[in-house]
Amino acid sequence: MASETVHRSDIGAFARRFAETIQPGDIHLLIGPLGAGKTTFVREIARVLDADAMVSSPTFTIVNEYDIALRGERMPLRHVDLYRLEGVDAVHTIGLMDMLADRGVSFIEWGERLKPLVSSYIEITIDIVSDDARRFTVERH
Ligand code: ADP
Ligand code: MG
After folding, report:
1. Ligand 1 pocket mutation pick from 40, 107, 110, 127 by most atoms within 8 angstroms of CB
2. Global pTM?
3. CATH fold of 2-140, please?
4. Which ligand is nearest to the CA of 32?
């Protein structure tokens, strides 16, 4: 388990380093309260991976998909926000599990709800340290 405190001004550099660890197919579950910086982090990851469009908050749309470059190969980056999705059944209704099994890379806000449904994932916990800093804890399962 790796833990790191990231200042507001270092988010881009942190995202760049994190992006180097991403493998195609990785599923990232983002865990942290409202305002922790989950959306900000995914936006930075998309940016450093040369996304074709800027990631906007997907809270009302559940899934936003972007075309990224990962080590020279273009693939989808899915930004999912389960905040407004009610019940585990809804995860199946929107076809999320099939989507995650597809090629590409996924980041899921409020992702703790998927833990029982995925066999392998990267858990990213974001804690608010102060107005200007967040602690990121990354754990591979
Ligand atoms: P969430 O998606 O977890 O609800 P957001 O990404 O919308 O959170 O971010 C909420 C606020 O936290 C924003 O104002 C953003 O500027 C700030 N923020 C995000 N990441 C950091 C960070 N690493 N350090 C300091 N502030 C941050
Ligand atoms: Mg958010």
Report:
1. 40
2. 0.92
3. Rossmann fold (3.40.50)
4. 1
